[in-house]
Amino acid sequence: MKGLLRFTWLLLLCFGPVHTATANDDAQAAKALLEKALAYYQSNGDKALAAFSRQGEFIDHDRYVFVVDTQGVLLASGGPSSALIGRNVSEQLGPDLQASFKQALATPEGQGIQQADYRWQNWNDGKVEHKHVFYQRVGQRILAVGYYLPRATPEQARALRDKAVKALVKDEAGTLKAINSLQGGFLQDDLYVFVVDLDTRRYVAHGTNLRLVNTDFSKIKDPDGKPVGEPILHLMTQQDQSEYKYRWKNPVTDKVENKHAYLRKTGHFMVAVGYYSP
Length: 278
What we know:
The protein has helices spanning 2-13, 23-44, 48-53, 99-102, 154-170, 172-180, 229-238; strands at 59-60, 63-64, 66-69, 74-77, 114-121, 128-138, 141-148, 187-188, 191-197, 202-206, 241-249, 256-266, 269-277. Residues 1-5, 15-21 and 93-104 have low confidence and may be disordered. Strands 8, 9, 10, 11, 12 and 13 form a six-stranded antiparallel beta sheet that branches. A five-stranded antiparallel beta sheet has the order 4-3-7-6-5, with helices on both faces. By secondary structure, the protein is α+β, with helices and mostly antiparallel strands. The chain is elongated, with a radius of gyration of 22 Å. Residues 1-20 form the signal peptide.
């Protein structure tokens, strides 16, 4: 276990900048690259380490393979951490990050590909962001591929809200159908649109949870039981455009996070899009 826990430190060290398309695309691509590397390693053993470290078939855009042994020594990397190959990197990170991986890395060899999540600095923009890694232990080697999970900006949230408002004005029925069908570009990673009829106070469209459609928005509460729908509806009686902060599940991370929603009235509808922050 002690040796495996050292791997947690390396996971947090070895990824460079990643530019994502969608969370699902990145997940599939990362897992596929790891599966390819595992097959190659099974056939070639440690001779595969050189191939993993070259700029070649084991580099997929900003995703790449890295390998560490259970003592914390980096054996291969196709990314920025390649300069650390041959070094024990187990002391590079503090003990505060070990707990998040302890349970995930307790899985013994032979259990297939495992997954883990954590937060770490993106070398591309300097921000601390959510990351996801696929990894598998093979003997005393652990092969891994990871990627940053997309997190939308306030500007992107406002732009998506305004896009939905314009679309509703142009084609009300078609836009509501598109939102509920996850089409028309109204679902963008952790951004989605929801629409409430201010006359009936009910959802008429929701970009990720169709079970909410036709339910009473005024009764909506956050996971802690704090009212969300009623205060938002009250804001809409006072102004045509507003903002509201609350706690809600992020569809990408599947965790309850802080959400900042941008609200706008158009006709008898309220259109809302919110971005998430940890």
